[in-house]
């Protein structure tokens, strides 16, 4: 029963989601929307679970003085402070967005996030260096293709039309063919996984009997 | 004297005739000019010919809150006076009742879908199973000409979307392939599947972590628990966690979604139980970090640089953070195995990790790791599905080349 009931629920909901795609009736639409609403409700309640988990891990790290426990202390302090400024009403005209919560979010969190994202440029450079080393035939093809694509924005004089043609060819023929093959495989793989789950063949995510 | 007066009268007459001629010579061109500058007939000021043959019918393949209206274009739409600007569609509950405007269609269009809301509380609620009458009027610069009232029509929902029949056929065909091969596998027939380097490396990667006495870091991606890539990652996590339980190697799973965290905890707990080592399961190793993308990256990168895990798994849904994570893992000297169905992230993973499961390989990984015949059967079914698609693509290309529209229509999904 411990296994049968969850599998029955998964199979029932899975088959409903499958058949509702083919049945445009209002009742089925309503049930589908209802199910989506439920996932949002569960998500909101699960946030409390996440908060508990985060606090628990951070407090344990600080208490045990684990390596990097200072970061955990900063994280805990930040958590408590943001909850405080988020809950206490303190609207002030002098603040750009009216509340300290929004000002901290806009002027501290967003720039930090942007800085993190901008690191990607340097990471791409280092990854490209490794990927483009022409050690094998495949890596050489990758290198040549990358050079062709990168040169599309560079004025090459009389060579520009030729390069443009090559860029179009690379993007619309081999690249598009590979992408379509990828999507085809992903679609079939996702369908097979869904089928395995609905039929109860795959139960790895809920343990074994 | 009489002769003199007679001569005078002749002179006066001649002058009069001369003046008359002069006047006529000036007046004639004026008259011609009046004729040529006459204002042309203003066709736009006249009402256009009305649209005809108005028909209303239930919109097919819908939820029952819509009626489609068609009509024959006005004779002055694109021809005649060419003064039709648009068509206005009007609706009434009775043929003699008051008609209300339901929408407009531009000149040249002869179809309109009168769609309403399904919620009764909505102001635009469209009641099903109720007769409605329609008329269409052609509009031209403030002037209208109305059609006759259509026959009544009512909206109702359909039990089956006929436009999706090709999808039904594809689903049934693919499911049949999978079920046939599952049955074949259950009967004990050995099925060959080509080896995948990324899967072969899993055991080696876990063994390395055990030898080094370092933990394994497993990243489930940024997808929510309802995404198929995340579900596939849960399944692989179950297999990997079982091996880590057997080898007594710690596994760290920082999550960015509380639901994903809860499912991951259950998966790992069950795997440890199955491996016979429930006492080694540590719930605190599967924890929530944050739902914000780059804050999550910062947290995970910090764990990589502090804990120096021997092996990193990146399996699931990844976005811009993929390279930030994989490059940091590479700097930390970990063996890295990645897999995602996000095509834009595949090149980053290929460049920065040791093994990459590309697209469908992520879904197949569980079957490879488990080596259970039933699961391998679905892989064979997938291969046959791909073969069927390739045949259909070939036939479709031939049909398009030789204009066999009927064959192409068989594959067209009408949403």
* Class by SSE composition of chain A: mainly alpha
SS elements, strand count of chain B: 13
The largest sheet of chain B has its strands arranged as 10-9-8-11-12-13
The gyration radius over C-alpha positions of chain A equals 27 Å
Structural description of this entry:
The complex is a heterodimer of chains A (209) and B (415). Chain A is mainly α. In chain A, 77% of the residues lie in helices and 0% in strands. The longest helix of chain A has 39 residues, at 26-64. Chain A is extended. Chain B is 45% helix and 18% strand. Chain B has 3 domains: 52-146, Sandwich (Immunoglobulin-like); 162-184 and 376-409, no CATH class; 191-371, 3-Layer(aba) Sandwich (Rossmann fold), CATH 3.40.50. In chain B, the strands form 3 sheets. Chain B has a 6-stranded parallel beta sheet with strand order 10-9-8-11-12-13, with helices on both faces. Chain B has helices at residues 2-36, 165-186, 197-212, 228-247, 258-274, 293-307, 321-331, 346-352, 360-370, 373-401, 405-409, and strands spanning 52-58, 66-72, 86-92, 100-106, 111-115, 133-140, 143-146, 216-221, 251-255, 286-288, 311-317, 335-340, 355-358. Classes of the chains: A mainly alpha (209), B alpha/beta (415).
């Amino acid at each position: 029963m411990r296994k049968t009931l969850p599998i029955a629920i998964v199979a029932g909901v899975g088959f409903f989601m499958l058949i509702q795609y083919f049945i445009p009736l209002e009742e089925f639409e309503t049930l589908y929307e209802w199910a989506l609403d439920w996932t949002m409700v569960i998500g909101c309640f699960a946030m409390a679970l996440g908060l508990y988990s985060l606090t628990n891990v951070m407090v344990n790290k600080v208490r045990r003085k684990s390596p990097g426990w200072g970061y955990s202390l900063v994280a805990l302090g930040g958590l408590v402070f943001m909850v405080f400024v988020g809950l206490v009403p303190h609207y002030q005209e002098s603040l750009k967005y009216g509340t300290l919560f929004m000002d901290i979010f806009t002027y501290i969190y967003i720039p930090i996030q942007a800085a993190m994202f901008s690191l990607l440029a340097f990471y791409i450079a280092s990854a490209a260096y490794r990927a483009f080393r022409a050690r094998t035939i495949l890596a050489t093809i990758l290198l040549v293709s990358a050079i062709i694509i990168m040169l599309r924005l560079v004025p090459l004089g009389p060579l520009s039309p030729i390069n443009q043609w090559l860029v179009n060819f690379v993007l619309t023929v081999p690249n598009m063919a590979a992408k379509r093959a990828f999507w085809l495989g992903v679609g079939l793989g996702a369908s097979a996984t869904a089928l395995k789950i609905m039929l109860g063949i795959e139960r790895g995510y809920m343990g074994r009997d | 004297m009489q002769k003199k007066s007679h001569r005078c009268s002749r002179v006066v007459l001649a002058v009069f005739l001369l003046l008359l001629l002069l006047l006529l010579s000036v007046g004639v061109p004026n008259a011609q000019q009046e004729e040529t500058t006459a204002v042309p007939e203003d066709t736009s000021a006249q009402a256009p010919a009305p649209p005809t043959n108005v028909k209303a019918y239930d919109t097919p393949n819908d939820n029952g809150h819509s009626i489609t209206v068609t009509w024959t274009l006005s004779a002055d739409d694109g021809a005649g006076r060419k003064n039709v600007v648009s068509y206005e569609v009007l609706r009434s509950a009775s043929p003699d009742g008051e008609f209300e405007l339901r929408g407009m269609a531009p000149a040249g269009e002869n179809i309109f879908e009168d769609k309403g809301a399904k919620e009764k509380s909505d102001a635009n609620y469209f009641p099903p199973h109720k007769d409605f009458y329609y008329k269409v009027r052609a509009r031209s610069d403030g002037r209208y000409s109305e059609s006759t009232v259509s026959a009544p029509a009512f909206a109702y929902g359909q039990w089956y979307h006929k436009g999706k029949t090709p999808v039904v056929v594809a689903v049934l065909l693919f499911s049949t392939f999978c079920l046939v091969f599952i049955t074949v596998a259950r009967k004990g027939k050995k099925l060959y599947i080509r080896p995948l380097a990324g899967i072969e490396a899993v055991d080696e990667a876990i063994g390395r972590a055990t030898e080094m006495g370092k933990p394994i870091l497993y990243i489930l991606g940024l997808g929510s628990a309802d995404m198929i890539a995340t579900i596939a990652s849960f399944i692989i996590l179950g297999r990997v966690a079982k091996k880590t339980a057997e080898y007594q190697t710690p596994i760290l799973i920082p999550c960015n979604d509380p639901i994903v965290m809860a499912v991951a905890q259950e998966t790992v707990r069950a795997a440890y139980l199955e491996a016979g080592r429930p006492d080694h399961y540590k719930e605190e190793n599967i924890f929530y970090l944050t739902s914000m993308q780059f804050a999550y990256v910062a947290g995970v990168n910090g764990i990589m640089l502090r804990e120096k895990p021997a092996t990193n798994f990146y399996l699931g849904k990844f976005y811009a953070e993929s390279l930030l994570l994989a490059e940091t893992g590479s700097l930390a000297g970990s063996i890295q195995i990645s897999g995602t169905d996000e095509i834009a992230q595949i090149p980053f993973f290929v460049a920065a990790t040791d093994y990459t499961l590309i697209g469908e390989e992520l879904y197949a990984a569980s079957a490879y790791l488990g080596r259970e015949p039933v699961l391998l059967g679905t892989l064979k079914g997938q291969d046959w599905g791909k073969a069927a698609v390739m045949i259909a693509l070939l036939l479709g290309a031939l049909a398009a080349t030789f204009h066999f529209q009927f064959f192409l229509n068989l594959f067209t999904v009408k949403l």
